[in-house]
Amino acid sequence: MSNSESLVPLKMLLFSFHATNTIIISFLPLYLEYKGLNGTEIGWVLAIGPLASIFAQPFWGYMSDKYKTVKRMLLICIVGLLISSVLFFQMNTLIAILLMGAVFYFFTSPIGALSDSLAQRRADDLRVSFGTIRTWGSIGFATSSLIVGEILDKFGIQFMIWPYLLFGTIALLVIFRLTDVKVDSEPIKLRDVSVLVKNKPFIIFLLFILFITISHRTNDSFMGLYITQLGGSERLVGLAWFVGVASEAAVFAFAGFWFRKFHSLVFIIIAGILYSIRWFIYSSVEDPMYIIALQGLHGLTFGVFYLAAFDYVTRLIPKLLQATGHLVFFATFFGISGIVGSLMGGALIDSFGGGVLYFVMGCFALLGTISMTIYHVLPYGKEKVRG
């Protein structure tokens, strides 16, 4: 079997999982608004996802390293996703939505991280660019945001569960065709995880990128509501995500051409500067069409930032702890940042509106960029070669 054939199920998994993820990221805030929740309450529900992921990501990463399989963990998580999503979408009170949301996110939050970890290892094994595999996730995200935005605009946000289950079922079917990773090392023990905690450059790096990732995750949660505040529809929300993720897919697809030109940290700093500019502009616009046009910057911010940060973290952590290290990185990037972003964002958009929220996000991104520049100049920025 050729390399390209052996990667087809993995690319299909990334496509279908990120297609489901789009539906949650792009339209769940609008669905919760339809259910009668206000901005602050929506923030609480959206914060449950990242809170669950802080426990779920390291747990599933540890299990994956311990049993030396990514495929079996992905299978368990996707079955959990399908069952818990049906229950989650039937809840109507805030408490019930929060409790079922925690179960739902416990299974869904590690899937992206585990599939990216699998893609990174398969890319290393086959000597191909990680970006060319990961771009299929972005294509799935973009396709879904456009199609589902149109469907929900026509039939109503309350039918959100059906496209979600469709893409989730496709993800389940392709799992069985996946090639698992071969791990030669000894099974991981809990004490090995302490090696990560004692890795100073790794911990400081995670602390500094928090400022930038908080601003990114706040946008994930509230861009849809901000577009509707400015007078846009579900269709425009879908279009905004499509433009953003199409640019992200292009950045991932061409990673092989631009990525090795500079040190990873230089790319992180450039992305941070662009994040700051992007949020300050968003804060001052009055027409949602400007946001859709500026979503083209999403690839140059998230795409560049994510690839560079993922690469840098991979080099900082020993090979034995790759899945665990990647999931700790994910727990920070999407977990802690998501909790702060959802709670802070919900309160700010309720009290002051979207303009003030995006101005605060611009300040956060700027602070993170300055921190990363200092980190790069200091000895901590000089990466250690992994074991």
Task: Fill in the keyword field for this structure.
387 residues, mainly alpha, Growth Hormone, Chain: A, 0% strand, transmembrane, transport, cell inner membrane, MFS transporter, membrane
Can you walk through the features of this model?
With 387 residues, this protein is mainly alpha-helical. It has one domain: MFS general substrate transporter like domains (Growth Hormone, Chain: A). The chain is built from 16 helices and no strands. The protein has helices at 3-6, 8-34, 39-67, 71-88, 94-126, 130-155, 161-175, 190-197, 200-229, 234-253, 255-258, 264-284, 288-294, 297-316, 322-351, 354-377.
- Looking at this structure, what is the CATH superfamily? MFS general substrate transporter like domains
How many domains, in number, for the residues? 1
Q: Give, in order, the helices and strands.
A: HHHHHHHHHHHHHHHH
At CATH level 2, the architecture is Up-down Bundle
List segments where confidence is low: pLDDT < 50 over at least 5 consecutive residues: none
Kindly state the percentage of residues in helix. Answer: over 70%
Protein name: MFS transporter
Membrane topology: Multi-pass membrane protein
Pfam families: MFS_1_like
Domain Major facilitator superfamily associated: 9-358
